């Protein structure tokens, strides 16, 4: 018997996982001192503020750009985060305050949710990711769960090195 | 996940890099035992042998004896992933876990194989992020997530 991956319950489950993963990211950064948001603890120089801004840019890219097909033009100064990346030069930093990057990320997530509220996960994206055309919106939601979780891991390490706090991201 | 450790020495994968003290080899062993074996063979399939192995050791999977080689831990991870894939192949995505660890997670619960798979994807990705950052601290090379239409891959730079 074929499994219906596209049932409403299954898609609601996937979207709930994505929302939980975003909250995990915010929980890892919550309470970090302002100076620490802009301090890098790794050799390549990325900062928590830059990482959160990048995650907001990823929300915009995947849900506004790829899913909804809007032109890739972002508010704020994060155009460099747009694919295609140059892996030799991309370093996530931000001059914005922690309040600003948190607000930016939350706003981008809300805009992603607005797209998803009116888009079937079985639908084909209207835009492209570079030259690639993901098969459907469900693939993109799964990708964003994975990408957000991976960056949550990066932030976990930064947080521990910045102020010693561990295991803030929940399950 | 497996590619991130390529090129690190045995000393490096056994070196605690952070104050919390975990090691790269310990993290891979945790993924093999506490994630792949636990979620698929033990929880989803209810395999008593898997439960016995998890309950009998008493030691944390994060602590890998010096007598256990990093290569054998990587091999264990691949083997556990293979056995997990067997459980996945034999189980409908809507199936409920055969043996949920009552009490271990409070009221939190995963209700189907589909939910367990998504949970393991996110847990594995988060730990891959830990390894990315620790690897950067060990050898000063950047390991970052890049996007491609075929999935996420890791590139290094510098």
What features would you describe in this structure?
The complex is a heterodimer of chains A (about 170) and B (about 160). Chain A is built from five helices and no strands. Chain A has about 170 residues and is mainly α. Chain A has one domain: Four Helix Bundle (Hemerythrin (Met), subunit A), CATH 1.20.120. Chain A is globular, with a radius of gyration of 16 Å. In chain B, β1 (about 140-150) and β2 (about 150-155) form a beta hairpin. The longest helix of chain B has 27 residues, at about 115-140. Chain B has a two-stranded antiparallel ribbon. Chain B has one domain: dinb family like domain (Four Helix Bundle (Hemerythrin (Met), subunit A), Up-down Bundle), CATH 1.20.120. Chain B is mostly helical. The interface between A and B is large, with 42 and 42 residues.
């Amino acid at each position: 018997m074929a499994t219906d991956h596209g049932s409403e319950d299954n898609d609601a489950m996937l979207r709930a996982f994505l929302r939980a993963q975003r909250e995990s990211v915010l929980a890892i950064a919550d309470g970090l001192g302002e100076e620490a948001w802009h301090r890098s603890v790794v050799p390549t120089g990325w900062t928590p503020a830059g990482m959160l801004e990048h995650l907001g840019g990823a929300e915009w890219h995947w849900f506004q750009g790829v899913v909804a097909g809007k032109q890739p033009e972002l508010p704020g100064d994060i155009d460099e985060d747009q694919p295609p990346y140059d892996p030799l030069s991309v370093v996530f930093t931000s001059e914005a305050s922690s309040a600003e990057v948190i607000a930016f990320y939350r706003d981008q997530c809300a805009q992603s949710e607005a797209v998803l509220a009116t888009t079937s996960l079985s639908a084909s994206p209207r835009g492209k990711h570079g030259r690639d055309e993901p098969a459907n919106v469900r693939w993109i939601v799964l990708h964003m769960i994975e990408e957000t979780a991976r960056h949550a891991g990066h932030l976990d390490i930064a947080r521990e090195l910045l102020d010693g706090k561990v295991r803030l991201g929940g399950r | 996940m497996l590619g991130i450790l390529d090129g690190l020495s045995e000393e490096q994968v056994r070196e605690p890099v952070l104050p919390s003290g975990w090691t790269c080899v310990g993290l891979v062993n945790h993924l093999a035992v506490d994630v792949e074996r636990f979620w698929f063979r033990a929880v989803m399939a209810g395999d008593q042998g898997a439960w016995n192995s998890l309950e009998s050791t008493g030691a944390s999977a994060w602590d890998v004896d010096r007598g256990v080689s990093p290569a054998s831990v990587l091999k264990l991870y691949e083997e556990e992933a293979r056995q997990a894939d067997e459980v996945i192949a034999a189980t409908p995505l809507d199936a409920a876990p055969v043996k949920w660890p009552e009490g271990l997670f409070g009221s939190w619960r995963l209700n189907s194989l589909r939910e367990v798979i998504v949970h393991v994807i996110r847990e594995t990705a988060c730990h891959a992020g830990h390894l990315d950052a620790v690897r950067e601290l060990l050898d000063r090379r950047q390991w970052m997530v890049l996007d491609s239409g075929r999935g996420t891959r890791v590139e290094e730079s510098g």
